[in-house]
Amino acid sequence: MDALAGLLDGPRARGAFLLRAVMDPPWSIRIEDEALLTLMCMTRSTAWVMPDSGDPVLLRPGDIAIARGPDPYTCADTPVSAVRARIGPGGVCSSEHGVPLAESMQLGVRTWGDRADGESVMLIGTYQLDGEVGRRLLDALPALSYLPSEVWNCPLLPVLEDEISRDDPGQSVYLDRLLDLLLIASLRAWFSRPDAEAPAWYRAMGDPVVGRALRLMQNEPARPWTVASLATEAGVSRAGLARRFTELVGEPPMAYLTGWRLTLAADLLRATDATVESVARKVGYSGSFALSAAFKRVRGVSPQEHRRAAAG
């Protein structure tokens, strides 16, 4: 597992919210849906994306922005246009005065706005990320990431634009996978920038010693790792690995391993019906009691409580 694969192991769209928004100026939409990750791509005209905290960006055709929630933001044709609509949790759309707009602005399959041939067209894909592995990705991103078209060339945008308003058999699954590919392509471009601010563990993947230890723990979390066994695999002393790992990652090896195991366990508890005992052994704990004790100590809830909260 390379560094980027480890970072992206989690966000897999399942019935993602996808929309083609077609607007005539002046327009402004307040986004308060609390979604944890949203991709926005302009295909016609321009739009401002303005987070409540942070610098606004101007999206041009071919550009992409990635908003990390749940903080709200505004999309508009100009920074001073009055808000015409609000998008709340679950994608519920209403006017400034609370009047529902979903039906009145519906223009067809996954298409919404003023008129079908409006001046501005934005493609929107939203993840409702509740998988805990995806939390590593969210923690690695700023509130708003922006990639202008001149720094990346992605052939997926025209495909998404062509497919988003179709209603063929299996279309939702097809679009989910297409959105995943677009996210991976954009994040790969984002993290490859010279000024990219990746998390410490991600940067440490490039170190020949610490990167080796990180990959071993990520790929084989169920092995009974110790600092000594990791150091042997990495070809350094126990003290040398502990010191170097803590300097580069920001925490000791065993603390990182505990966090990684619990992250994997949280995702398995949410996404599968496997027993706590089975999950515990899969991520490196001796049984359900050991996993429950670690889960409660680190996350403040039991595995069962986490599973119920994720389901409800």
Question: What's this, in brief?
Answer:
The chain is an alpha+beta fold and 312 residues long. It contains twelve helices and 13 strands.
Structure description:
The chain is α+β, with helices and mostly antiparallel strands and 312 residues long. Helix content is 40%, strand content 19%. It is built from twelve helices and 13 strands. Helix 3 packs antiparallel against helix 4 and helix 6 packs across helix 7. The radius of gyration is 22 Å and the shape is elongated. The mean pLDDT is 88.
Residue runs with pLDDT of under 50 for 5 or more positions: none
* H-E string: HEEEEEEEEEEEEHEHHHHHHHHHH
Number of helices: 12
Q: Report the biggest beta sheet as strand number plus sense, adding barrel if it closes.
A: 7 strands, mixed
Shape descriptor reads elongated
If strands are numbered along the chain, what order do they take across the biggest sheet? 10-11-1-12-3-6-13
- Count of distinct strands: 13
Mean pLDDT: 88
Structural class by SSE content: alpha+beta
Features:
single chain; 312 residues; alpha+beta; 7-stranded mixed sheet; 13 strands; elongated
